[in-house]
Amino acid sequence: MSTDINTLRQLAHLSRLEFDATKEQEMLGALNEILDWVDQLRQLDTSNVAPLVHLSQEINVLRPDEAHNTVSHQDGLRNAPRKDSDYFRVPKVLD
């Protein structure tokens, strides 16, 4: 399967892409390579291949999501540039 320059220009227009003459030829070559590869895949006999639901049989093993206080309240405020008893002081965001 081969694509001509007019088809590439139509695809570029639909995709809102612009190519100069040298890039146009480069893109035409790349597009034809992709289409040739897809054509090779199309020729494979997949009648005895079961469809995949997932690409991998791996199962994500994640640790439980448990909250812990790793820094105490006082330790958190200790290095604050400005604080007010139990809170961080920050500049006003809203007027």
Q: Count of DSSP helices?
A: 3
The percentage helix is 40-55%
In angstroms, what separates the terminal alpha carbons?
64 Å
> What is the mean predicted local confidence, pLDDT?
87
**Derived structural class:** mainly alpha
Radius of gyration: 30 Å
Shape: elongated
Helix/strand order: HHHEE
The main pleated sheet reads as: 2 strands, antiparallel
Instruction: Give the beta-strand count.
Output: 2
Estimate what percentage of residues fall within beta strands. Answer: under 5%
Which regions contain 5 or more consecutive residues with pLDDT less than 50?
Answer: none
Q: How do the strands of the widest beta sheet line up side by side?
A: 1-2
List its traits.
2 strands; single chain; 3 helices; 95 residues; mainly alpha; 4% strand
How does this model look, in words?
The protein has 95 residues and is mainly α. The protein has three helices and two strands; from the N terminus they run H-H-H-E-E. A two-stranded antiparallel ribbon has the order 1-2. The radius of gyration is 30 Å and the shape is elongated. Keywords: ATP-binding, Ligase, Nucleotide-binding, Protein biosynthesis.
